[in-house]
Write a structure and sequence with these properties.
single chain, 178 residues, mainly alpha
C-alpha cells in the first residue's frame, strides 16, 4: 500500500466519522462545526486527487461562506433542546430503514465499480496535471470563452439589478417617511 492510498483511507475515515458527528450531535452549533471539519477533509481529498482549485473553492465557499450563514441562522432561530420536536418510534424506524436502504445502494454501487476495474490501479491523479488551475484557465479562455463571457454579462446584470431594486426601495421608503 503506497502513501496515496493511506492518505485516501485516513481522510475517508475522518470524513465519515465527522459526517456521523454532524448527524448524531444534539447541539446545532456542534453539528455545524462537524460539518465545517467534514468540508476540510473533503478538501484534503481534492488535494490528494491533484484538484487544488476545487479544494480552495470548497474551503472558501462551503467551509467559509455557507457555514457562516448556517451559524447565523441557527443563532437567530435560538434552537435548543426545549424547542426541538420529540421524535416518536415510527419516525426513528423509518429513518433506520431509509438509511439502511441507502447503505445497500452505496455498497452495490461500490461493488460494481470495483468489479469493472478488474484489479487495475488508476494512477491518473498522481501522474498528470489534471485538475490544476492552469488547465482550467486554458479551457475557459480557449474552448469556452463565449459561454464564460455570457455568464459574466449575466452576473453583471444581476448585480446592477440588485442595486437598482435596493435603491428603488430606499427611495420609496424616503417618500413614505416624509
Amino acid at each position: 500500500m503506497d502513501i496515496h492510498q493511506i492518505i485516501f483511507w485516513v481522510l475517508s475515515i475522518m470524513t465519515l466519522g465527522l459526517a456521523v458527528g454532524v448527524i448524531m450531535s444534539r447541539s446545532p452549533i456542534n453539528s455545524v462545526l462537524f460539518l465545517i471539519l467534514t468540508f476540510f477533509t473533503i478538501s484534503g481529498q481534492y488535494i490528494a486527487m491533484n484538484a487544488q482549485f476545487l479544494a480552495i473553492v470548497n474551503v472558501i465557499v462551503y467551509a467559509g461562506a455557507i457555514m457562516v450563514l448556517f451559524l447565523f441562522v441557527i443563532m437567530l432561530m435560538n434552537l435548543n433542546g426545549d424547542t426541538e420536536p420529540q421524535k416518536n418510534f415510527l419516525v426513528q424506524f423509518a429513518g433506520v430503514i431509509s438509511g439502511g436502504s441507502l447503505l445497500l445502494i452505496f455498497v452495490a454501487a461500490l461493488k460494481s465499480s470495483y468489479t469493472g476495474l478488474e484489479g487495475k490501479q488508476i494512477e491518473l491523479a498522481q501522474s498528470s496535471d489534471i485538475g490544476l488551475i492552469k488547465n482550467l484557465g486554458h479551457a475557459l479562455f480557449t474552448d469556452y470563452v463565449f459561454p464564460f463571457e455570457i455568464a459574466s454579462v449575466l452576473f453583471l446584470s444581476a448585480m446592477i439589478g440588485a442595486v437598482v431594486l435596493g435603491k428603488r426601495e430606499k427611495d420609496e421608503l424616503d417618500v413614505v417617511v416624509e
